[in-house]
Every structure is written in C-alpha cells, then in structure tokens.
Amino acid sequence: MATTLAKAADGGTQTTGPAARIEHVSKSFATPAGQQLVLDDITLDVAPGEFVTLLGASGCGKSTLLNLVAGLDRPSSGEISTQGRPALMFQEHALFPWLTAGKNIELALKLRGVAKADRRTRAEELLELVRLNGAYGKRVHELSGGMRQRVALARALAQDSRLLLMDEPFAALDAITRDVLHDELTRIWRETNVSVLFVTHNVREAVRLAERVVLLSSRPGRVAHEWRVDIPQPRRIEDTAVAELSVEITEQLRGEIRRHGQH
Ligand SMILES: Nc1ncnc2c1ncn2[C@@H]1O[C@H](COP(=O)(O)OP(=O)(O)OP(=O)(O)O)[C@@H](O)[C@H]1O
Ligand SMILES: [Mg+2]
C-alpha cells in the first residue's frame, strides 16, 4: 500500500534521488466560470533530509500542491514522485477521539505492518520523542491543542516515511506553544533526518524552520522566488538574522499580492 498512493500521484516511487520531485506540475479545477488554473508549471525538488518551507498568500495553491505530493489528488499535467509514501500532518490534528494518544499512534504502526507485540513500546518511544511521556493513556479531549499536535506529529512519525508533509500544523496554536513546537520539530528533524515539506503563510515561521524557503505567486501559483537559509540551527524566531530575512521575503510576498491584485 505504501507505494500505491505515491504511484497514483505520479509515474513512480523512487528509492534514490530526491525525497520529492515535482516536475512541471500544473493543476486546474473545474469551476462554474470554467477551468481555473491554480498551479502553473511548478518544478521543485526536496533533497533527502532537507527542510523546505512553501510560502505564499492565502489561496495561492499551497495545500493543493501538498495534496498532489501526498497522492490525494492528481496533477492536470506534469509528474510527481516521492521516496515511498509520505506522512501527512495538517492544521487539524485529525486524531481519533475515541482512542487514547497511545492507541492513535499504534493504529498508524498497525497500518504500517508493525507486529502487535512491538507497537506499545514503539508508541511510547514516539511519545517520548515528542516529549509527551506519560500521555499514552490520555484521550484526545484531555490534551491541550499543543499536546494534540505533538500526538499528531508522533503519529505521522510512526509511519516511518522519508518525507513529512506538513500543512500549517501549528497555525491554530498560540505563539508560545508554536515557538516550543518549532524547537521540537527542528530537534526531531535533525535527529531523524526526515525530509520535510512544510506549508505556511507565516514568513517568520518559514525562516525559523527551513533550510530553503520557496515563495509561490498567486493565481496561478508559480515558484516566484527561493531563498537558502544559512542561519545556524537552533534558531529563535526573534533572532536578528531571522527577522532580517523575513523582512526581505515579506517585501517579495507583498509584491506578489500587489501583482495578483492588479489582475
Ligand atoms: N477541489 C477544488 N475544486 C475547486 N477549486 C479548488 C479545489 N481545491 C482548491 N481549489 C481552489 O484552488 C485555490 C488554491 O487553494 P489552496 O487551498 O491550495 O490554497 P492555499 O494556498 O492552501 O490557501 P490557504 O493559505 O488559505 O490555506 C483556491 O482558489 C481554491 O478555491
Ligand atoms: Mg492551505
């Protein structure tokens, strides 16, 4: 099953090369006003172990692109391939409320084919990785928003994918909780060497986290600009270097929004 979804999205699942390869991908949707071109000729690779943030104005097609990489939808043209089936994490935690934190993770392990006898230990290890030791038996309603996102992250990591796709996973959290989770995500990314494609419209968050920031234009979404972020990790969102690059990127983003407004 691991390869089926990825294959549905592209022509194949690769075992070498980039974690994700997006080649000349366009996507249109049928609307009452006719075909709407949302993504136009996107070409983008995510290298193994790389952390890329995809930044753009609301409605520019970020989630559409992530869904295509996830294999949840097909491009209208172009090709996408990934190293195995990616794991997904969204703004909404999408945990099963009738299961405990531990059982939510175990379900992902079960779907991956992990033997029953090993699931509990692995679930507890993953809870430890996201610093939720002791939360195994807690139900979703007993957890704070930040804790739920930690469980959702642990569940995504339970899939043992080489590529983690994240769509504004911290957008609903308060600034302090988000800050803590940025630190945790950076730590986990460095420890596991997973590749991450992270969608956000928050410029500071994009710079805080990524090795590379990719800015999408709006209507249609195209790769407008890319920045390498060489600021050493761990970074703080309030670091001067993070702030300075954020100012530069925000200027470009404003330009994109202005251009879009003139259409
Ligand atoms: N299934 C669909 N059918 C028709 N139009 C769609 C569909 N999915 C997305 N769109 C349109 O594609 C455009 C891009 O949507 P998308 O959700 O990818 O944007 P986004 O960049 O993720 O925005 P946000 O930052 O608000 O989450 C929007 O105009 C949206 O209405
Ligand atoms: Mg979106």
TrEMBL record:
<keyword id="KW-0067">ATP-binding</keyword>
<dbReference type="Pfam" id="PF00005">
    <property type="entry name" value="ABC_tran"/>
</dbReference>
<dbReference type="InterPro" id="IPR003439">
    <property type="entry name" value="ABC_transporter-like_ATP-bd"/>
</dbReference>
<feature type="domain" description="ABC transporter">
    <location>
        <begin position="20"/>
        <end position="245"/>
    </location>
</feature>
<dbReference type="InterPro" id="IPR017871">
    <property type="entry name" value="ABC_transporter-like_CS"/>
</dbReference>
<dbReference type="InterPro" id="IPR050166">
    <property type="entry name" value="ABC_transporter_ATP-bind"/>
</dbReference>
<dbReference type="InterPro" id="IPR003593">
    <property type="entry name" value="AAA+_ATPase"/>
</dbReference>
<keyword id="KW-0547">Nucleotide-binding</keyword>
<dbReference type="InterPro" id="IPR027417">
    <property type="entry name" value="P-loop_NTPase"/>
</dbReference>
<keyword id="KW-0813">Transport</keyword>
<dbReference type="GO" id="GO:0005524">
    <property type="term" value="F:ATP binding"/>
</dbReference>
<dbReference type="GO" id="GO:0016887">
    <property type="term" value="F:ATP hydrolysis activity"/>
</dbReference>
<protein>
    <submittedName>
        <fullName>ABC transporter ATP-binding protein</fullName>
    </submittedName>
</protein>
